[in-house]
Amino acid sequence: MNGEVLRYLIRFLLGEDAPELAVSAVGYTAVPTDFPRYKVVILPSGFFGEGVYGTASSLPSLPLREIEGIPLLFGTPETETTGTTLLVHADIIASACFLASRYEELVRKGVRDEHGRFPGRESLSARAGFLHRPVVDEYGCLLRRWLRQAGVPLPEEKRGIRKIYLTHDVDAPFLYRSWKGFVRSLLDKRGIATSLKGKFGVPKSDPYYTFPDIFRQDEHLRELVGDNRCRSIYFFIAGGNTKEDKPHYSLRNSDIQQLLRQIPTRQALLGLHASYEAGLNPALIVKEKKALEKAIGGSKIHLNRHHFLACREPEDADMLEKAGITDDFTLGYADVAGFRLGTSRPVRRINPANCRLSSLVLHPLLIMDCTLDDSKYMNLPFEEAERYCLDLLEQVRQAGGEVSLLWHNNSFTPAPGNYSPRLYSSLLDNLSEPHIHTDSKCNE
To answer: Cα–Cα 20 to 30 A to 332, which of 87, 226, 309, 314?
Structure first.
């Protein structure tokens, strides 16, 4: 295994507050003469072995074993002491790498939905029943506990949600303000006067222009929890010619320009919403990023989320890096909410094709609005959706991670059966409340 990745994974599992002494006290080796050098040794399971890694034979088989109630992908749950070293047979290094790198998606290339995405329901996490848990973070709890048992001093883990990202993909900023929208308005039998007002009136008269309400709610939460803990991000489309990229809008449009100018004044961030077409042809990401930067006067864009969450192959992230993207917010499943990367914390991208570490930071997408109510996806009624989401938030609190929510601007439009605005308000209310934990899974 690549030494840089190994060291990063150990550091990631232990957390940013762990001293260097603790990181160097963990070994990943099967060589008995090396055991005395470490306080805790994790025995490699063979996952990274030549002729194994990258093949179907490397995939875990169900049902999975567990260690202290935590699903274990590789190794066995036994621990033993040899001399002054705790020997762990549970390969949490391979298990964490498997999840955080999206390794499964590389090996199971034939498993894709109609948009070329790896379906969440097909993931090992879903099939084994732990997609709703940040299992990689739970491995970190185990490792810290083992080190304490071996006499290595470690600070107490920080509980609670460390960062909140309220993100909004601007797929359709308006419903009626284009000429096509004007025709749609007439077909919707809104009348000529109302249709003309929709086309030529003020933007806020358009049902999809819900940004004032979004600004108000997001800013209220930010005031309650602090700017250092809560940020809003608006992702704009800057290209794409497929039917999935419709409705096309121009960044030069006066209404769009006005919106783009508003966002920084609201202390919010701008990001690229790489088009559906760019998901099919990642070379277009550079062009689209430059187009968005030009539209905002030359300021640099460093954030991205793919339209349709269609970052189809793990290797597609190479183009994000080449384009100058530093942080990506795509990594959630469209069809089921949960922890696609196995963690609630931002993690540097590990390329599963060559097990190399990159500078691109992946922010786990926890919940997307349409995932919950769309009949093709989870299809949950409001009460079940709210309960499921609140459980996910509690998982993040226990892990000391970050929350990333995705609510489209048109999801705030009142409509029969649309509970998205109500659910968003409920989640923000929950995020605004102080949650104090006197104990944690790490300290049991």
So the answer is: 226
